[in-house]
Amino acid sequence: MLFDYKAVSAEGRMTYGRIDAINLTDLEMRLRRMNLDLINGTPITHRSLFGAQRVPRLELINFCFHLEHLTRAGVPILEGLTDLRDSVEHPRFREVMAGMIESIEGGQTLSHAMDTHPEIFSQVFVNLIRAGETSGQLPEVLDSLTESLKWEDELASHTKKLLMYPAFVATIVLSATFFLMIYMVPQLKMFVKNMGQVLPPHTKLLFFISDLLVAYWYVFLALPVLAVVVVQAALRSNPLVRFRMDEIKLHLPVVGSILQKIILARFANTFAMLYASGIPVLESIRTTQAIVGNLVMRKALERVEQSIREGQNVAGAFHDAGLFPPLVVRMLRIGESTGGLDKALLNVSYFYNRDVKEAVGKAQTLIEPMLTLFMGALLGWIMLSVIGPIYDVISKIKT
User: Which of 284, 269, 275, 243 lies closest to 356 in space, CA to CA?
Assistant: First the structure.
């Protein structure tokens, strides 16, 4: 059972958190092992409808940053985590850190304690921490993770920047069109028909669509929602559908090339971190397969792993996979021959990160006029279809 608790530390500092326990007695014992005295505990009888609450990336960045400085200063991991737990405001993350402290007090390592929370700490994160513990370079690994998380946050903001404006404009255009079709066009329809004018085909088409929207507006509103639900269910239940969808994403005009660059930049950055931390090439490639977020790229990395396992060199394996651009293969070949594979991969990540920024800027300058043109054409068609017959009648009256 999950408990919300209020406790006091040995220094007299109030601590609030959330932790799993069998009952209040078990809760008190667990907190005592964390050097906390229970004041009160309240069982939580229900969980969120949408599952476990996610921890924002900013919280993970702050966690890595502060833990790096604490460990570099010689503060033991357990004490550092305790201090961080008391300063964290996010309830879910505070709960996770309390569980980690308990696990470490039970004799587990930091990486093992993190591995029990896969929804918070990815396999890449855990493997890097484990490598840092083994090599004695935990502060350096935490510093790399901090920079990597900051980079991912910046990359996510570029992606949102690319998608938010078109989504916003499309919503406004569709809403305005829906309003015109439902409210304005029916009012003008009777007026235009009563003039006895022969209606042009585009006006008939407009009135037909308007009649459909008026009669079945609920169907048109429900169809997009139903389509999203069906597609999401198909993606979750059928790997082939997800594979085809990921393949389509990579071949979309404008967006597809940017998406591929984002995936390659994330792969190169993660691969470089893993390899630089002392993790073997095969294990590094296997770990990166989970973070690319695209089944097509994942299958390609699986082929790369198999080729290397069969004795092929790294650059040759990536070349034969057929999905990686010449820049990636060339950098891998140089890094492999010079013994600086991690530096070569970081260069790949840098180049693609720069390309993503430039591509997002170019895509925005291209998308904005296209959306404006589309919006003008749509609204122009509606106005022309309604005003055209009226103008024809007025022209005949004047003559």
Answer: 269
